[in-house]
TrEMBL record:
This is Uncharacterized protein.
Amino acid sequence: MKKSAFRKLIEDEIDDAAGNIMAKGTTSDDIAFGRLNVLLSLRRTLDNKTTPEDIGMWGAFNDILQLLRVLDGNETIFSGIEA
């Protein structure tokens, strides 16, 4: 998937998660907030503005997916994104 199309998809997901925080109750707020944290981290990563926390989080996700053999050892979670 092209990076620009993927970023647009992420923006839509961020808007949706933020809307859920405003529209629903406490439990849904917590779920949407967790989702929003991951999506905002992903957007920063796509924009080359990662924080140390972002690097650690995506590294952990990547390691887990490799351990589960969802990704090959030479793949990363971002391998499918084209410039």
